[in-house]
C-alpha cells in the first residue's frame, strides 16, 4: 500500500506511530479480503474483488480504490454493505467505506496485440501492468468494433414462419418487443446447422436497435462466441478487461451466437459466466444461440449450463416440406424471378438438409437463368444443379415409391397392394410399379410380390402400359417424370 495515508488513530503523531497504524491497517485489509474471498468463492473474487486496493483511512472512513467506474458502481451496489460491516468488525473505528476510481496509470507505448491472430486457450501471457494498449482498446471498444455487423437481409420480415420454427420465432419477437420480460431472460435458441438461428438473432437485434415513436433504439452487442473469446483474450493481453466489461455493460442487450464454441474454453467460459450474471442482475437481456440445448452442452461448466437454461429455451426443428416451399417462394419472389411451382416442389423434395443449402440451390438456379436469359424449368434445374442433387441422392425403396405415388395421386397406401381394379387406383399402382422397375434393382417377381403378391407378368404389363401412355400423353409423362426426379437415386 505505498500511497496509503492511514489515520485510524487520531492521536498518532510520530512516524513510528504511523508505521504501526499502516501495519494494523494492512493486516485488517488482508483479513477483510480473505473473508470476502471465502464468502464469495474464488471465481467471483477474482472477477470482481481482486482489483480492490486500500487507499487509506481518513477519520472514520476507509477509502478503497478500483480501476473503473463500472467496477466502482458494481461493487458499491453488490458489496458496499458487506465491506462496511467487515471494516466495522475490525474495531479500528472505521464506520464508512468509500469506493473510488483510482486515477489511471499513464499508458505507455507498446506493440498492439496482433489483431486477428489465432488465439487458443490456455490464455497467453499478459503484458506487464501499465504496458497495456489500454488507450487503444478503449478506443476500439468505444467504437464498438468488437460487435459484429448485422446482415441487412436477416430481419423478421424476411423470416418465414412455419411449424418447425414458430415457437422460436414467437420467443424472438417477444424479446425484441420487450427485452427482459419475466421468463425470457436469457433466451436460448438452438437448432441444427443452417436452420435460421443467426437469422433470428439478427432480426431481434435489428428490431431492438430501431428507434420507435421518436425514442432512440436500444443498444445491442451481437457477436459470435468466438469473437467474444477473441475480444476477451485481447483485453487480457492489453490489461483492459475492465474496459471490456464496462463496454459490455453499457449495452441493453447482449447476444452471443454459436455458444457451443466455448466448450473446452474454460477461461472464456468463466468470463462469459460473470458477464452474463452481471448483465442479468442489471436487468439486461441476454440472447444466446447454439447447436444443442443447454443440457446437451457437455464441456460447458455446470453452473453456466444451469443459468443458460433458466430463462426460455426454444428450439428450431428441421424444416418440413411446407416450410421449405414457403421459403423458396419468398426467396424467388424477392429475387423477382419466375420459378415454376414444379421446380420449387422438386427442390423442396430433394434438398431437405437445411435452409442454407436450399437457398444456395435456388440462388444458383436464378443466377443461371439471369445469365443466359432463359426461363427456369425442371430440366434446367436438373442440369444446373446436378452436383448438388447428386449429393442429396439416396437409395430409393419400393416402400418410398409406393408412398410418394399414393400421396401424389391422393389414394390410400394400402391400395398399392389391394385387389381393387378401379382406374383411379389401378393407374397409380401401375405408375408405382413402373418407377420401381426404373429406380430399383428389384426383379419383376419381387416387385410383384411387394404389390400384393401380383404375378411378374402384371408388373411387365404395367411397365409397358405406363411407357405407352407417356408417349401419347404429355401431361401424364410430365407427372411421372416429376415423380421419378423426386425419387431418383
Ligand atoms: N425461416 C426462414 N425464413 C427465411 N430464411 C431462412 C429461414 N431459416 C433459415 N433461413 C436462411 O437460411 C440461411 C441459413 O440460416 P442461418 O445462418 O440463420 O442458420 P444457422 O441456424 O445460424 O446456421 P449455423 O448453425 O450454421 O450457424 C440464411 O440465409 C437464412 O436467411
From TrEMBL:
Subcellular location as annotated: Cytoplasm
Q: Where is the composition biased (Low complexity)?
A: 108-124
Q: Where in this protein does the record put region Domain IV, binds dsDNA?
A: 370-489
Question: tRNA-binding: present as a keyword of the record?
Answer: no
Q: Where is this region: Disordered?
A: 108-143
Supply the InterPro entries for this chain. Answer: AAA+_ATPase (IPR003593), Chromosome_initiator_DnaA (IPR001957), Chromosome_initiator_DnaA-like (IPR020591), Chromosome_initiator_DnaA_CS (IPR018312), DnaA_C (IPR013159), DnaA_dom (IPR013317), DnaA_N_dom (IPR024633), DnaA_N_sf (IPR038454)
Outline the subunit composition: Oligomerizes as a right-handed, spiral filament on DNA at oriC.
Comment block on domains: Domain I is involved in oligomerization and binding regulators, domain II is flexibile and of varying length in different bacteria, domain III forms the AAA+ region, while domain IV binds dsDNA.
Tell me the residue numbers annotated for binding ATP.
Answer: 194, 196-198
Q: Which GO terms describe its biological process?
A: DNA replication initiation; regulation of DNA replication
The record's GO CC annotations read: cytoplasm; plasma membrane
Known Pfam families for this protein?
Bac_DnaA, Bac_DnaA_C, DnaA_N
MF terms in GO? ATP binding; DNA replication origin binding; lipid binding
Database matches in PROSITE patterns = DNAA
Q: Where is the composition biased (Basic and acidic residues)?
A: 133-143
Name of the protein described by the UniProt record: Chromosomal replication initiator protein DnaA
The alphabetical list of record keywords is: ATP-binding, Cytoplasm, DNA replication, DNA-binding, Lipid-binding, Nucleotide-binding
Instruction: Enumerate the PANTHER family for this protein.
Output: CHROMOSOMAL REPLICATION INITIATOR PROTEIN DNAA
- Origin: domain of life: Bacteria
Q: Where is this region: Domain I, interacts with DnaA modulators?
A: 1-111
Q: Which family does it belong to?
A: Belongs to the DnaA family.
Outline the extent of the Chromosomal replication initiator DnaA C-terminal domain. Answer: 397-466
